[in-house]
């Protein structure tokens, strides 16, 4: 069985100073989890570099899996040889010849990075020697230092690594290195994107979804589960706490000014999510809110929701334009699901007119008109949990 080696580069983790080992370990573990399904795959953590060794027939899929791990800047399939100039030049020749035959390359350039200063030749000397050797032995290939078809890099460390291709990763920080956040996951376009962006910064996600069954349908919940499934592409597992807020909405509808329906529901959502955070060790709430997009997302609306919870509310999309959000949604493959036309709990009891500039004191007064604690306890008592792992729903 032919084997291949993949060199994994990470960026920002390297800037982490004293904590670097903690981040590196998390990163290494996450890479291992991402490739565990492949036969005979080996992940090597060596001198601040990660290498993945796999069967050649899995190479493409392994590259795909690794580039989806947060923290990866880029990966390159690489050839590893001893630090011996004759072995290096011959193996480089074979590789250039292979690319000439397989991809029709006509020009090349050798680039050397000598991290191992114990190697007796300088980088320019190595370039000249290996380049000259290839130039002589393959008459069809010409050197082009400005725009070569093949840029073959030789990296001299404890071994010499050669590579000519680079696949971009997603960047970010290792998943789980920044504590846990509670994602308020609706069926819309924004919240999955918000969750993805925070996950990419290393935050572990646990989700809360609010519905108004039977006013909202089973299919609307299925849609949210499908979004969760898609997020596990990056998070591996995801728990979704599903909470019915119909009784809360009914009570608001009966007792409070009708134009405050949306903002009051939102306050309850935040408080319920905070309770879930307390229960599972979440350090913040994450929403897909975006300044000025809808009536409830004015600065005044955001102030009201903020003052009604004690933990930070992170809103990674606050300054995004809708087209930018949609771009990310398409990239992470949640867009098509998000635009399915199922009803949302926010549309239940929707009044004709909504307050766009709610006042903190007025909203607080309205909250006194309902049995706030009782409603919250009752909703939490009937909370359900959905666990998704690697795209599969485990429990419902
Ligand atoms: P989205 O596309 O994420 O639904 P939106 O632009 O439709 O966002 P809203 O419906 O006002 O905006 O919701 C703002 C945020 O509040 C959402 O991004 C989400 O984080 C949270 N939210 C709204 N509805 C729900 C729900 N049913 N369950 C969980 N969170 C919700
Ligand atoms: Mg919505």
Describe this structure in words.
The protein is built from 13 helices and 16 strands. The chain is α/β, with parallel strands linked by helices and 396 residues long. It has two domains: 3-168, VC0802-like, CATH 3.30.2130; 180-395, HUPs (Rossmann fold, 3-Layer(aba) Sandwich), CATH 3.40.50. The strands form two sheets. Strands 1, 2, 3, 4, 5, 6, 7, 8 and 9 form a nine-stranded mixed sheet that branches. A seven-stranded mixed sheet has the order 14-13-10-11-12-15-16, with helices on both faces. α9 (299-307) links the parallel β13 and β14. α3 (85-103) crosses α4 (123-137) and α5 (190-200) runs parallel beside α6. The model has no long low-confidence stretch (mean pLDDT 94). The site of magnesium ion (MG) has 4 residues, from loops. Residues 60-167 form the THUMP domain. Pathway: Cofactor biosynthesis; thiamine diphosphate biosynthesis. It is found in: Cytoplasm. This is Probable tRNA sulfurtransferase.
Keywords:
alpha/beta, ATP-binding, 7-stranded mixed β-sheet, 2 domains, 40% helix, transferase, ThiI_fer, elongated, thiamine biosynthesis, 16 strands, single chain, 9-stranded mixed β-sheet, binds magnesium ion, 396 residues, binds adenosine-5'-triphosphate, Probable tRNA sulfurtransferase, 13 helices, VC0802-like, Rossmann fold
């Amino acid at each position: 069985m032919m084997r291949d080696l993949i060199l994994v580069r990470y960026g920002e983790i390297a800037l982490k100073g004293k904590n670097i080992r903690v981040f590196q370990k998390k990163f290494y573990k996450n890479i291992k989890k991402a490739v565990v399904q492949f036969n005979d795959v080996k992940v090597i953590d060596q001198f601040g570099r990660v290498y993945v060794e796999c069967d050649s027939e899995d190479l493409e899929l392994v590259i795909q899996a690794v580039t989806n791990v947060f923290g990866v800047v880029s990966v390159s399939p690489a050839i590893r040889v001893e630090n011996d100039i004759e072995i290096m030049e011959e193996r480089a020749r074979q590789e250039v010849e292979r690319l000439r035959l397989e991809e029709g390359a006509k020009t090349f350039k050798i680039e050397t990075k000598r991290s191992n200063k114990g190697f007796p030749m300088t980088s320019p000397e190595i370039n000249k020697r290996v380049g000259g050797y290839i130039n002589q032995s393959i008459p069809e290939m010409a050197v082009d230092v400005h725009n070569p078809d093949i840029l073959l890099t030789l990296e001299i460390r404890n071994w010499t690594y050669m590579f000519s291709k680079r696949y971009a990763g997603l960047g970010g920080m290792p998943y789980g290195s920044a504590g846990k956040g509670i994602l308020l996951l609706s069926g819309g376009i924004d919240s999955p994107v918000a969750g993805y962006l925070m996950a990419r910064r290393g935050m572990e996600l646990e989700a809360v979804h609010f519905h108004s069954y039977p006013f909202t349908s089973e299919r609307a919940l299925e849609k949210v589960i499908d979004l969760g499934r898609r997020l596990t592409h990056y998070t591996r597992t995801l728990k979704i706490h599903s909470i019915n807020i119909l009784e809360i909405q009914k009570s608001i509808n009966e007792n409070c000014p009708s134009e405050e329906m949306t903002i009051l529901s939102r306050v309850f959502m935040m408080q319920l999510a905070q309770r879930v955070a307390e229960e599972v060790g979440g350090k913040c709430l994450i929403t897909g809110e975006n300044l000025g997009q809808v009536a409830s997302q004015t600065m005044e609306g955001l102030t009201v929701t903020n003052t009604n919870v004690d933990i930070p509310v992170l809103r990674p999309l606050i300054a995004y334009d809708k087209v930018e959000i949609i771009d990310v949604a398409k990239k992470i493959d949640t867009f098509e699901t998000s635009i399915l036309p199922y009803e949302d709990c926010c549309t239940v009891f929707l009044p004709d007119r909504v307050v766009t500039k709610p006042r903190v004191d007025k909203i607080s007064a309205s909250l006194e008109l309902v049995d706030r604690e009782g409603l919250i306890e009752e909703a939490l008592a009937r909370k359900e949990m959905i666990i998704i792992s690697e795209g599969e729903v485990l429990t419902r």
